[in-house]
Design brief:
It is built from 4 helices and 4 strands; from the N terminus they run αβαβαβαβ. It is an alpha/beta fold and about 140 residues long. The protein has one domain: Rossmann fold. α3 crosses α4.
Length: about 140
């Protein structure tokens, strides 16, 4: 079946892959003119990558704070938005798997601030997709 519409897909403007790729995050944020960020991750990814990224960013002069996601839903998005506004965060970083990345990308979109995807589980499309998956009660909400 042929496509009858043109589909434009926005992809990340930079992709860093490899050992110690997280060390490129300060440079990516500087290119965006960002010097304060809210890291959005889960309890496990906090231990796997979140604390390390926070340390790297602080060492490079960034103002950084964290938000732990327990569930991918609009309640979590609202909490991230509230914390980001209070901190005057200039960007959000979604660190981990789908839940964390989906919450961060949705909040960043609503706040109209840059967002970086830092996947620890690259087996889903959330690392590059504008779509996100939330619970059934939040249906009929399109991708951005």
């Amino acid at each position: 079946m042929p496509f009858h519409k043109v589909h434009l897909i926005k992809i990340p403007w930079r992709i860093a892959i490899g050992k110690n790729a997280i060390k490129t995050i300060p440079n990516l944020l500087e290119e965006l003119g960002v010097f304060s960020a809210l890291l959005v991750h889960g309890p496990l990814t906090s231990e796997l990558a979140g604390k390390r990224i926070e340390k790297i960013l602080r060492r490079n002069g960034f103002e950084v704070s964290s938000f732990i996601v327990n569930k991918a839903d609009f309640s979590s998005v609202k909490k991230v938005e509230k914390k980001a506004r209070a901190l005057k965060a200039q960007a959000l970083l979604g660190i981990g798997g789908g839940k964390n990345i989906d919450v961060a990308k949705t909040a960043a979109f609503k706040l109209k601030i840059p967002y970086l995807s830092v996947p620890t589980i690259p087996s889903h499309d959330g690392i590059a997709s504008a779509c996100r998956v939330f619970s059934k009660e939040e249906k009929n909400i399109p991708c951005f």
